Amino acid sequence: MTALALKKISKSFDKTQVLKDIDIEVNEGEFVVFVGPSGCGKSTLLRVVAGLEDASAGEVWIGDQCVNPIPPSKRGIAMVFQSYALYPHLNVSKNMSLALKQEGIPKDEIAERVAEASRMLKLDGYLERYPSELSGGQRQRVAIGRAIVRKPKLFLLDEPLSNLDAALRMNTRVELANLHKQLKATMIYVTHDQTEAMTLADKIVVLRDGQVEQIGSPMELYNNPVNQFVAGFLGSPAMNFLPADIIGKDASLSVGIRPEDLFLADDGPLLADVTHVEHLGGDTNLIATVGEYNMTVRLFGQHDIEPDQQVKLGFDAAKALYFSADGLRASS
Ligand SMILES: Nc1ncnc2c1ncn2[C@@H]1O[C@H](COP(=O)(O)OP(=O)(O)OP(=O)(O)O)[C@@H](O)[C@H]1O
Questions:
Q1: Closest C-alpha residue for ligand 1 atom 6
Q2: Whose CA is nearest to atom 17 of ligand 1?
Q3: Where is it chiefly localized (predicted)?
Q4: Based on the domain organization, do 74 and 145 belong to the same domain?
Q5: Residue 178: inside a domain
Q6: What is the secondary structure of 136-199 as a DSSP string?
Q7: Alpha carbon distances (Å) from 202 to 34, 181, 185
Q8: Counting atoms of ligand 1 from 1, which one is nearest the CA of 190?
Q9: Which of 177, 195, 227 is the C-terminal boundary of a domain?
């Protein structure tokens, strides 16, 4: 069943249009990630779903109801923000239960829900602590717990991990994926981080300049992007783009080759000047130039290559993608 449908949503602030004709369907239980560069309209779209902003045109459907006239508090949603927005004067237990109390839910049910959420989030030992006595990761878990106890139809998460350091971000990402599995809840998650999108999503919505570029599973988008923008946005290090005549193809096209699809080959068609080498232990990244074009090569394992060295590169031709001058996919 469809949990959320956005139908031709547009949004303008004064004369500036920031969302244009957005159509998205989210199935029940899906983890959907809105991803795109800064300013593309991700947060505004989430706020329109929440009812914190009105759409200038179009409809928001939650389940079988058009919620345009319905205020945020009645939409059956719970939001988690980047800033945890916890109440500093309330302990963890009270932060989690406040909204339920305001809704008039009986005390023993509140206690049950708080106990269950804190068990899931491994916060059971911290219920009496105040936010100032918690780490950033714990605070974010409380914010997530506060959403869980409300048993919403839809979870809306706006960059919830971006205040955490890299290691904690990765742990919390895994916890969030597990939580989604346990709750079987519908989640809409906004991020500009393509790794979060790739690792968390059942379905990714790539946005640019207020428009949907492509919707699909992470692997569909990675392997079969509709255009150069999507191809370049998903994947780290990013896809390399070169004029196709460098590999003997039509000069009006660009060829896109992912860093991991390049390899060292004495008879390879690309002569690369290595400018920098990143030894990652398990992998080695070469930053290089081919003619005037920059390239990143991801080699499996450890390699004894120095900056200023020249290497010959081959690539997996079956995985190369071609793009016409307007950025759309083309056949070679
Ligand atoms: N209340 C507002 N009034 C005017 N312009 C706004 C308002 N809110 C957002 N915008 C503009 O709308 C555009 C989209 O903003 P939005 O915050 O949705 O982008 P985003 O993709 O979430 O970016 P980021 O990743 O940087 O948070 C931006 O150009 C922003 O300046």
A1: 13
A2: 43
A3: membrane
A4: yes
A5: yes
A6: HHHHHHHHHHHHHTT--SEEEEESTTTTS-HHHHHHHHHHHHHHHHHHT-EEEEEES-HHHHHH
A7: 11, 11, 12
A8: 22
A9: 227
Q: Is the pLDDT of residue 84 over 80?
A: no
Task: Tally the domains of the chain.
Answer: 2
Query: What is the domain extent for residue 268?
Result: 237-330
The answer as to whether 232 is a domain residue is: no
Angular region, 302: left φ>0, alpha ψ -120 to 50, beta rest: beta
Looking at the predicted structure, is the pLDDT value of residue 77 above 80? Answer: yes
Ligand 1 atom at minimum distance from 46 CA: 18
- Please give the distance, rounded to the nearest whole angstrom, from the Cα atom of residue 52 to the centre of ligand 1: 13
Residue 114 lies in a domain: yes
Residues 147, 102, single domain; the answer is yes
**Domain containing 318 — which CATH number?**
2.40.50.140
Q: Which of 43, 81, 205 to mutate to test the pocket of ligand 1 (most atoms within 8 A of CB)?
A: 43
- Regarding predicted confidence, which is higher, 164 or 294? 294
Residue 2 contacts residue 169 (beta carbons within 8 Å): no
What CATH number did the domain enclosing 23 receive? Answer: 3.40.50.300
242 and 208, same domain (yes or no): no
Whether pTM exceeds 0.90: yes
Band the pLDDT of 115: cuts 50, 70, 90: very high
Residue whose CB lies within 8 A of the most ligand 1 atoms, among 17, 44, 189, 206, for a mutation test: 44
Residues contacting ligand 1 via CB (< 6 Å): 13, 18, 36, 38-44, 192
Please tell me whether the interface predicted TM-score (ipTM) of this complex is above 0.90: yes
pLDDT of residue 120: 86
Domain boundary among 203, 227, 251: 227
Residue for token pair 């896109």: 256
Q: Show the tokens assigned to 313.
A: 């590169």
Q: Mind listing the pLDDT tens digit for each residue in 116-165? A: 999 888 888 999 999 999 988 889 889 999 999 998 989 999 998 887 88
